[in-house]
Structure formats: structure tokens, C-alpha cells
Amino acid sequence: ADLNTLLAGVSFVPTANSSAPVTLAVLINDGVATPLTGSKTLTGTPVNDPPSPGGATTAQTNEDVPASLALTAGDIDSALLGVGLSADHGTLTLPTIAGLAFTTGDGTADTTMAFNGTQASINAALAGVTFAPPADYNGAAVVTYGLSDGEAPPQSRLIAVTINAVADTVADTIAVAEDGSAVFNVLTGSGGASAD
């Protein structure tokens, strides 16, 4: 009875991400009679795992200066993946588009792009994706990165970008007659000066 109770509580945990058949071998020996042996084959059912978007979650750059976002794409059981990238302020550019099929955008200065490809092609593109803020913009921006394998629910990642303000300096030339005077303001751009 104690042995049956023990065996009734046995559980089996398969290897992670494996659906291969497993054979459990059983041997019972009471030390007197011939040992009894038996086996049971367990058949696994494959279950699709969702893709894993990875890489940066934050970035920082100065006004008018592009920022590099190192992103990654992974999926243990799907060779082909779909990617969606968008920026609420600014544009995105991929360093390479080799092996990618675009459904939105073309990979250069896009506010939104979507494409499909192998994990290798996608990772080559995402490793050097750059975000360019709008001209003279400073403040916050968000890049949204979505990854799909076509089966599991799409997974997303947000990258919060901080764009630091930088003073725009302009060399001014003001014409003044000999022995004359000029009134101008380089901050507001009045009197012939350029606003900084």
C-alpha cells in the first residue's frame, strides 16, 4: 500500500521545449522474487512558443543626432518571423535590408515599417537600427517594436528615447554704416539677427 501511494504521486517533467517521445522504465524488486520490469512511452504534443523581442528598452541622444538601438529577435521553434517598428516622434532606418520582405515602408527613414524574414536576416537588420528625431525636436519619444511568428500572440517591446535639447547657434552678420549703430537681438532674431 505504501509503495502504491508512492508511485501514485510520481510526476514527470519533460525537457524544456521538447516534444520527443520519452520511455519510462520501471523495475520492482522485493528482494525475494524475480524482479518485475515494465515501461511506458509518453508522447509529447508540440506547443508553439511565442517569439522573444529583445534589446534596448531606453536610449538617449541629443537634438538632431540619431540614436542607435540594438534590438534582437528570437524564437525557439519558428525560423521565419514578422517585425513591426514605429516611432511616435522621428524616423527609423535599418543598416541592411538583405533577406527582408517589406509590407510597410522600405527600411529607410520610416515612421512605420513592417517586414518578414529569417531570424538571421532580421537580427542583422535590428542590430543597427537607428532612430532619428525630428529636426530641432527635444523631449520624449517612443519606439514600438513588435515581433510575431504567425501563430502565438505577437510580442511587443517599448523603447523610451530621451532627446536632449541643444542650443542652435548661428553666426550672425549685421551691417552697420561707419560711425552708425545697430539694434538687434540674437535670442529673438530681431533687427537682422538669427534666433538661436
Folded structure, characterized:
The chain is built from 2 helices and 13 strands. It is mostly beta strands and 196 residues long. Strands 4-13-12-7-10-9 form a 6-stranded mixed β-sheet. It has a 3-stranded antiparallel β-sheet with strand order 5-11-8, with no helix packed on it. The longest helix has 8 residues, at 119-126. The chain starts with a helix and ends in a 32-residue tail after the last strand. The mean pLDDT is 87.
Element-by-element helix/strand order:
HEEEEEEEEEEHEEE
Whole-angstrom Rg: 31 Å
Residue-averaged pLDDT: 87
What is the subunit organization of this protein?
single chain
Pairing-aware structural class of the strands and helices?
mainly beta
Strand content: 35-45%
Instruction: List the uncertain runs.
Output: none
As a percent range, the share of helical residues equals under 10%
What form results from the Cα inertia axes?
rod-shaped
Distance between the termini: 89 Å
Strands ordered across the widest β-sheet:
4-13-12-7-10-9
Strand elements, count: 13
Q: How large is the count of helical segments? A: 2
Q: What's the main sheet like?
A: 6 strands, mixed
Please name the defining characteristics of this protein:
rod-shaped, 2 helices, 8% helix, 196 residues, three-stranded antiparallel beta sheet, six-stranded mixed beta sheet, mainly beta, 13 strands
Describe the secondary-structure layout.
Blueprint (H helix, E strand, L loop, with lengths): L1 H7 L13 E7 L7 E7 L9 E4 L2 E5 L4 E3 L1 E4 L5 E8 L3 E3 L7 E4 L7 E7 H8 L2 E4 L6 E10 L6 E10 L32
Parallel strand pairs: 4-13
Antiparallel strand pairs: 1-2, 3-6, 5-11, 7-10, 7-12, 8-11, 9-10, 12-13
